C-alpha cells in the first residue's frame, strides 16, 4: 500500500509540474495587451483551450463596447488554472483598401551609414583613421565639425577640407549619441581620407499592403528597409514611392530566393515618412486595383487555415492567389513573424515558385478581412514564409504625422 501511495505521489507531482510548465509557457508566449473591435469579446485562438474571464476591476457591462475604453481579463486553462491577466483595448473597426500593387522605393538616410572600412596607404604604412578613432561599421554619422551630413559627398568634402586636422564626428550607435575625433591621413594621391565606406540612400521594389482613404496613409513591406551590408534599419531622412512595372520574375528555389524584376516609371505616387520594424508608411495616392474597402482584422481574429494574398507578377495588375496560414504566433518578441504561410495556388507556384523578394507587403485576406502581409520567405523552401499581423502595421500607421 505504501508503494502504491508513493507511485501515486510521483505521478501527481509529475502532472502538477507539467501543468505548471504549460501555464508558464503559455504565459510567456501570449501578449499582455489585446485589441478587440467594439461589440466583440476577446477570444484566444490557441492549440490550448484558453478561456477568458473578466477581472474584478474591469469596466461595468455597459462600457465594454465603447471604443477607447479598456478592461482586464483573466486567461485560464481547463480546471481554472490561471495563466495571466491581460488588458483588452476596445477600438473602432478600421476600413482600408487592400494593396498588392508594386511600387519602387527611393529613400535617403538621416545621416550616412558606415558600411565598411578601408586602410589608407600613407607614409609607407597602412592606416585607418576611422577605426583608430573608434568608429565602427553600422554607425550612423550625423554631423562632422558641427555640420549635418546627408550624403556621401558631404562626408568626402568634410574630410578632404580638413587638411589633416582632427574632425569632430557625431554619430548614433545602437540608439546612443557619441562623438569621436577623427584625424584624416593623406593618401598617395594627396587627398585626405578617413578610411570608411558610407551609404546615404537605398532603392528597391516592394508591395503596398493597404491604403487608408480617410487619412491618405499607405503601409507597405511589413518589415523595415535595412542596409544590405550592416543589416541595420536605415534611418529615414526623405523618400518616395514611384510607379513600377513588373517585367518578369526570377522563380525561387531551395537555397536561392527568387525576385521580382521591374522598371521604375519615374512618377512619384507617395511620400515616405516612416521606416520602421513593421513596415514603411507615408502619404500618397490610392491604388487603382481592389478599391473596395475591407475591415482590418485584429490579431485575435486570425485563424489557421485557408487565406489569399494579392500580389503582382506581371505589369501593374495585382492578382489573388491561394495560401494556407499554417501557424499563428501571438508572441510579442518578433512582430514581423506572426504567421507561417504556405503558398498553395498552382499558378503562383508555377510562375514564381512561391514567395519571392519584392512580394514583401503583399496583403493577406481571410474571411473578407485584411489580416496581415507577407514579410519573409524561407530560404530553403520558397513555398513557405512568414507574415505579419495587419494590426501591428495599423498601430504604427497611426504615428504618421500630417
UniProtKB/TrEMBL annotation:
Classification via SUPFAM superfamilies: PDZ domain-like
Gene Ontology molecular function, alphabetical: hydrolase activity
Keywords of the record: Hydrolase, Signal
Listed Pfam families: PDZ_6, Peptidase_S55
Ranges of residues in domain PDZ: 85-186
Peptidase S55 domain segment(s): 176-402
Enzyme Commission number(s) of this protein: 3.4.21.116
Signal peptide positions (record): 1-28
The protein's name in its UniProt record: SpoIVB peptidase
Naturally occurring in which organism (per UniProt): Candidatus Anaerotruncus excrementipullorum
